[in-house]
Amino acid sequence: MSEKKESIVSTSALRAYIMLGVLGLIWVYFHWATGSIFLTPTNLSNLATQMSVTAIIAVGMLMVIVSGNIDLSVGSVLGFAGGIAALSMTTYELGLVPSIIFAIIVGVLIGVFQGALTAYLNIPAFIVTLGGLLAWRGAVKWLLGGYTVPIADDTFKAIGNNYVEPLVGWVIAGVAVLSVLFMAYRNAKSVKDYGLGEANYSGELLKAIIPIVGVIAFIWVMNAYRGIPVPVMILLAVALFGAFLTNSTTFGRYLYAIGGNADAARLSGIDNKRNVLKVYALLGALTGIAALIFTGRVGSAAPDAGVLKELDAIAACVIGGASLMGGRGTVFGACLGALIMASLDNGMSLLNVRDFMQDIIKGSILVAAVGLDMMGRRRT
Fold this sequence. Notes:
Elements: H1 2-33, H2 41-66, H3 74-89, H4 96-119, H5 125-144, E1 149-150, H6 154-161, H7 166-193, H8 201-225, H9 230-248, H10 250-260, H11 262-267, H12 272-298, E2 300-301, H13 309-319, H14 331-350, H15 355-379
Helix pairs in contact: 1-14, 2-8, 2-9, 2-10, 2-12, 2-13, 2-14, 3-4, 3-5, 3-12, 4-5, 4-12, 6-12, 7-8, 7-9, 9-10, 10-12, 13-14
């Protein structure tokens, strides 16, 4: 059992190193091709802000995919929740806090509804959420009357556009590093607690070095411009929460068990239906948060807001190592995949690559990532 676990861990770590290498090559190429513009603090700050919405959704999508399900409706839900927030701020003048709460509640309720259809009525998640993609997009058009609703409130727009002070950034870096170390300790300790072998604290510490170095380097680069963008700060909190949930809680272990073998999980006493409902509700909440960032950043709600965001989130998860068959994937991988996708978008835009070619390149990368995943599963 311990040998199998070590094999899985080493494979996951190897994939992470490979993806980091790919990201490095992408960055080096775009920096050279754009005349040393790509890796400047200004562009990297913009890049981080651009990826935040996709990455926040990808954290929730990763947990849904791990459970063996999918959600194709998050782009439409993002547009609908953003429309609710915009109308609450403008037409109904309910204020900032109620508008934020309403957007998140709408996301949760939609997640619960679609999760219930999937879990309790046994309608395939693909069909439920494909219907949701169409239905909620229609709801956005009806809600906004087909028009763009501008938001004048500077506090609301700050959610998507402001920056935190550099000193606060270093405090956040310290908290993030301590959180990574704590999760590494918990992971090593859980191996011994569950009788799977001796706790390998040094091994977990070595695995934690990459995210720790990444966090410190990231904060340093962000502070070299204007500080951490508020959307990125929210993303960091969501990613740490998602990593803790998947690695250090019973709920997270249940998701992997359900995705790995739903029948075996059910026979072992896991309530598959309730946990699937929970994970869809969680994805809905994160989509509501992403909607607030997206709407605040553009300063308006529009009928086409969030179009194709679901595909970006799914692509980020798959590129980061998640299996569409369920049972495998990490929050770190999903965020890394989102960063790779955002880097491609940003770099190709700086090079003035035409839209159709950008779509072809990103689609090809997604198909290649899924193909490599299936080849790996066959070898396993």
